[in-house]
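Protein modeling request. Please complete all fields; requests missing the sequence field cannot be processed.
Requester role: graduate student
Desired output: 3D structure, token encoding
Chains: 1
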Amino acid sequence: MSTSLSARDRILIALDVDSADAAVALARKVAGTVGGLKVGLELINAAGFDIISRLQDAGVDKIFYDAKFHDIPNTVHGAVAAAVKRNVWMVNVHAQGGSAMLRAAADAAHSANNPPLLIGVTVLTSLSQEALNADLRVAGTVNDHVLHLAGLCHASGLDGVVCSPHEVAAIRATLGNDFVTVVPGVRPKGVAAHDQARIATPEAAVASGATYLVIGRAITGADDPREAAIRIAADIEQGV
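Delivered output (240 residues):
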């Protein structure tokens, strides 16, 4: 899957804005230059679920609903089934919910008439090695824990995972080319890291084996978001 995508199709813009009008305006600006849009908790809670169809009407068909569901299996099954009815292209759950929850999510997603990609969130890119060990009291390295959770997602029937650029190569080597890797923490050269701890440039992430790149402020905060998206796609093409 990762080798057949164009550079443009790999880019998913994170619409981390707090109004429907701002999101739709951004969608119109970048339509035709990116693969899809990520709609997260901020926008969904500010604008409601109708924002998904509004973004599609603005010219971007593929919507990644960054739901990060994490609850008991029955609740997550119902939540994923409801999300599928919104015609989302991709939806995610927290891998930390365990195999029973992951299997319930996969059943709900893949039994739909138009099944979305179901992705498991491994370790948030804002978490450092120190935070994983000291705050969460998870022993071992971030890389080892991400690989463990990725393997759990794979065995539970998910289509892929969210991981940082630092773990992509190991996941690709272990779980193969068809397992989707959705990679936030992507920053073009010269762009600040902000609240991300484990980052890489777009071209480096794709060279490591990333399927999709989630890019937010480097595009949405640019003076010309459309031009920024085109430039990043060009960087990816030159770096692969």
